[in-house]
Amino acid sequence: MARVVVDVMLKPEILDPQGQAVANALPRLGVTDVSSVRIGRRIEIDFTGEADLDRAREIADKLLANPVIEDYEVRLVEGAEVA
Amino acid sequence: MRIGVVTFPGSLDDGDAARAARIAGAEAVRLWHGDPDLHGVDAVVLPGGFSYGDYLRCGAIARFAPVMESIIDAARGGLPVLGICNGFQVLCEAHLLPGALTRNQHLHFRNRDQWLKVEATGTAWTNGFTPGQEILIPVKNGEGCFVADTKTLDALEAEGRVIARYIKGNPNGSQRDIAGITNEAGNVVGIMPHPEHAVEALTGPSLDGLGFFTSVLRSLAKDGQLAGGQQ
Prior knowledge:
CATH architecture of chain B: 3-Layer(aba) Sandwich
CATH architecture of chain A: 2-Layer Sandwich
Largest sheet of chain A: 3 strands, antiparallel
Mean pLDDT of chain B: 95
Number of domains of chain B: 1
Helix content of chain A: 25-40%
Largest sheet of chain B: 9 strands, mixed
Low-confidence stretches of chain B: 227-231
Order of helices and strands of chain B: EHEEHEHEEEEHEEEH
Number of domains of chain A: 1
Strand order of the largest sheet of chain B: 2-1-3-4-11-10-9-6-7
Distance between the termini of chain A: 9 Å
Order of helices and strands of chain A: EHEHE
Radius of gyration of chain A: 16 Å
Oligomer: heterodimer
Low-confidence stretches of chain A: none
Number of strands of chain A: 3
Largest interface: A-B, 12 and 20 residues
Number of strands of chain B: 11
Shape of chain A: elongated
Number of helices of chain A: 2
CATH class of chain B: Alpha Beta
Strand order of the largest sheet of chain A: 2-1-3
Number of helices of chain B: 5
Mean pLDDT of chain A: 92
């Protein structure tokens, strides 16, 4: 079995109100040196056999990310402990 | 005239949408997400709610439902389709409408009666309104902030494809106060507020929502005269 990880992030020009809310909460923790927080999503895909990066890209492009507002990155995780 | 209303797992407003279609004078036909057969309907409403629990992104999974494959094909062929709230999100995810709907800018769920100004009145779903008409219908969403790149927004404006804008306050931060848009052909319309909740004095703030449903009936009747009942 093999694992592919897909990271989905809002495009830089899209406002991320969740990230802003987190950034605005940081001073309450005494953190004052963070200028920006952006929140995305990490998706782990476990293939039954060999990891298929092209297939993972297709999944990401069609379903996991909305290319209108999001960018994604697909990467193979070597030696991942896959259940 | 038969207006189909789709039920996805997690749809909430399918009953109200069917009721609004009936009040407007149509026969409401319930369509099931797992059934690709559109049962000969003349128009389709994708209702509000939380299809598939809003998992992944609102509308992202509903787009791949068997019924949606038929609707996407039929919409490209001219079938009038109205997406309300979650239905609007589904239409954007299905690329029948441009842009996307994201988390409300202020992060709060907004539930209130909302004033809108109707702009494009050449569409299948808005032809009963007059340009500039102000209407009051409920809005209720957590992810209703319409976004698109500047080029797309400019094109929507230039081509007169903004069907309604928020006035007297923007409830979710939508770019350029956009509440609803249409496709190039004018048969597919998405709107974030809920016209189906403003069709009766007892339960709604106005009867303004009825205009969307009577518009499509008028448009179908007109097309019927011109094209012998075929869209």
